[in-house]
Amino acid sequence: MFSLFRTIHYQIINHLYDAMRVSVVVWWLMLISFQSYAQVLINEGSNRNYLSIQDEDGEYPDWVELYNSSQDTVLLFNYSLTDKQSEPTRWTFPAVKLAPGEFKTVFCSGKDRKPVSNFVHVLNTGNFIPGTGWITHSFTTPFHWDGVSNLLINICSYCSTGYTSNSVFRQHETSFNSVLYYFEDGGDAACGHSMGTVSTHRPNVQINGFQIGNGTWQNSGTEYPAPYGNWYWGARHQILFRADELLAAGLTAGDLNSLAFEVVQSGSNTVYDYIEFHCKAVSEQELTTSFSSLNTQNYLHTNFKIDSDGEKVYLFTPQQIQANNLLINNKDLDQSVGLLPDGSSTATLFAGVTPGASNNASQAYSSYLLASTHSHPSGMYDAPIQVSLDNPNPAPSQLYYTLDGTEPGPTSLLYNGTPIEIYTSSVLKSRAYQEGFLPGPICVSSYLMGVHHATPVLSVVTSPNNLYGSAGIFDNWSEDWERTAYVEYFSEDENLIFSQRAGIQIDGGAGGSRSHPQHSFRVELDDGVLGEGPIYYPLIPNRPNRSKYSKFYLRNGSNQYLVLPYKDACQVQILGNETNTYYSAMRPVSVYINGNYFGLYELREKFDTEYFAVLEGADEDSIDILSQSYWYGGMLRATIGSVEPFWEDVTKINNLDPQTSDFMQRADSLVDIKWYIDYIIAENWIANNDWPYNNIKIYRSNTTQFKWRYCLIDVELSLAPNSWTDCYYDHFNLLYDQGNTHPYVGLWIRGMEHVPFKNYFINRYADVMNTSYQPERALEQESQFFNFTAVEMQNEYQRWGNAGDIPGEMNSFYNNHLTFRDQLSLRTDVVREQIRS
To answer: What distance in Å separates the CA atoms of residue 446 and residue 373, rounded to the nearest whole number?
Structure first.
């Protein structure tokens, strides 16, 4: 019995020993694992990136920097970044590596991009004559494929002999957008283009001799995709292969040395100056309309942004263990928060930023100074004032100030306690400085002396360098640069309504909005870096149900500059106010920049997510907004969301038979037919022929049941004065000339072959001409816009026009107004006759 007890006792001891040994090993492995994870850290970040570091789109998103403090290379695959601790896998890394001591910058932009590698230039063929059969290109520089990532091939072709024809390729159909292409007339600029057309047709290829695709579809000599493409001289293609396709074909991780195409036919006279190939490993599962940049940088973008007021960003391991976090809460531009020294547990503020480099040479700051204040509020004054500055910070801090919009700094005027006399219109900026502290916020006041207008007044305060010179948006009006500003808005009775930081950016197209000396520009109140958030005020009385504005557009009249600047705003309101049509409402506003009068503007709405969320309750995450204009290359692009679903729906529409009984119902499942017909009626009635190849805006959301609707924009070249058409123009001919496959008008042409559609269109047209398009209503609205602006036009001619002949200029303005009224009076009767005939 004792022996049995001893045996059992020993077995229990051994089991306990084994369990303890396993626990120790597990604990040790966990400790090693934790230490390894802790060696990759968020080392620096900024939520105020203004002009410090650009991404591949030329934009300046928020960013964080990772640092590997270990002696080993770390594969970041399935590590994750998040701004929500409860969602550790919000954005995961692709299979990129972080070498010992390496820093890697990740943009927190919301763009969600995960390139695995840079493009590698693998071949330039030089002079090349295509043949037929399998044409093999042997790479001069092999590309190493990791066996996990998807493969993206960029091909640029150019033939300087001009228009010949594309080679014809055998191609197969893919279930995803596998090819993106663009072609250019007259040169080799195609390879620098940023956007193109997607396709599910992909050429059959052999990579390292392994074939992918055996389809029989063929492009024509003037049709794309066509990697040997010179119809219109030059072309660019990006072709995507998913990793599982490469593996299924027999490829394994290693060097890719060759690429071959199955060519059916090539032009006998076609000689390419070159065909150039690049390869890149990516994580994208399909292509969008944006080309992946050939830039040598390898940019990562998360699917979230850092809150403008600051928040923590967390780094998690593949096992969802938190490696570390960093509170990023900068209060001023181009500053950062980071660890000092690198990889330590001590976070501090930096006046400058060092993305991709060590923080160890940076000066640390613990806090900001407080903002100064001014004794007199911003406003309009009829007599000189004496303004005192107050510094809430103890000595030895000092205040510096400027009166011309420039940023105050230690080289500016030092405030010595004597009040500042203001006797002409000025903008006062002041700021506190002290060694060892980051400067406080800038206090801004607009003092407009002897200024009185019938309109509201907007004062814009910004450094002159933001407007003029090599970095100025007015002197570089073709660029979409954004610059920092301060804006103050006064109502007609001269009360200050709002005063805050904002971003400003040139806006508008080719009609003169950008290029006139009085430039059109956008004010971004809720810009995450430069703004302070939306304002809540009914800025535009013609839009009575809207009181929230995160941005607005200051338009100079564009094509109607100094002619009839309210013309477009009046036209779109007449067309859209009582119909199923979206339009941008307007109110006139007088603008001052740095205390100087800068002209009468149309304060207009922008078609953005807020517009549709406020006006009809759309979920902002559900919104797609597409735009096509001459200024951006005449290509349909997504300003919000994605353009691919629209093209898919256009294909479905083009396959509809108008002779079938359910044509209208099936079309209505894709495009909101009631809204579409009202839109076509509006463009037709106003006689707009700066359309439909230009000035296209398309929208959908959950509130449209994801059916597409169109928005009215830029109709001002319709109807005299200063127009391309007049009230007698037969716009129906223009509509029919577009053809029934036109993406925007083709549905109407097809619909006119369908009796219920045609009957609805004619009856609806009669309805709107008997109601909202009645001459009396149109003229009533025109009078409202005329009264808005007429009293201020003399200031315009004094500032921008022929100041020596203001009476003549004003007489011309009145005559243009009368001409426009005549056109509005006649148009409905003309259209009735055109419909009858």
So the answer is: 13
